[in-house]
Amino acid sequence: MSATYTFDVFATLDGYGSYGPDGDWGGYWGKQGPELLDHRLSHYNHPQRIVFGAKTFRMMTKMVGLSKGTAGVDEWNLRMRDMPATVVSTTLKGPFDWPNATVVSGDAVDIVARLKKESPVPLRSHGSLSLNRALMAAGLVDFIQVTLFPVISGKTGTSPILQGSDDFDLELLEHRTLDGRTQEQIYRPTLHRSTTRGMENPQIPKY
Residue 154 — pLDDT band, cuts 50, 70, 90? Predict the structure, then answer.
């Protein structure tokens, strides 16, 4: 049986990613209430393999790598840090400030397709936007988990989470409100097949 793959991403209301206190303002810092933190921790209560792209892995090691210790690091990040990780990159070289991280070079679609066949545990990817857009296009993402923070970052946002993505239909599987302000939605994506594709000389209505 193929391992499931979850694309886990933080977003603002206007669709920008949340990239750390020194990067884009995405809402997490300052709005990570106790209910959200407990819920995030629950996602790491069972064995998983974490999948990162190079950019997100660099960011995560900078923020919560081993050299940061445990002081001031949210517990769910510590739990994630202790899990085995596959980093898809052609440029990164070790050693890394992250335990159990393995860099794999090659085509991301081929790498993750192989992981899904071989992994005895589910796969989860945090952030890693360009990586996950490619995996969505290849039909390898089983679940999109969006944590939507009650902020707009129209002036400072630089990383639209789905810009350049294909069109997808989304089946809502779960949703919840955390700390009375933050939304989590879990979807199953399916590549959208337009009913107009392949039509010859479609009739354009006159108004």
Answer: confident
Query: For tokens 């440029």, what's the residue?
Result: 91
pLDDT number for residue 207: 43
- Interacting residues of 86 by C-beta distance below 8 A, sequence separation 6+: 49, 50, 51, 52, 101, 102, 104, 111, 115
Which are the contacts of 193, defined by CB distance < 8 A and separation ≥ 6? none
DSSP state of 23: S
The first and second tokens of residue 101, run together, are 């991280």
CA distances 133 to 9, 21, 163, 174, 202, Å, are 12, 24, 9, 21, 30
**Could you tell me if 61 and 44 are in contact, meaning their C-beta atoms sit under 8 angstroms apart?**
no
Which has the closest alpha carbon to 154: 12, 2, 4?
A: 12
Q: Measuring CA to CA, which residue among 196, 187, 147, 158 is closest to residue 31?
A: 147
Domains detected in the chain: 5-184 (3.40.430.10)
Strand 182-191 relative to strand 168-178, pairing: antiparallel
Give the ranges where the chain is alpha helix by DSSP (H): 28-31, 34-42, 54-64, 75-81, 108-118, 129-137
- Per residue in 84-114, pLDDT tens? 999 999 999 888 999 999 999 999 999 999 9
The contacts of residue 196 (CB under 8 Å, 6+ apart) are 202
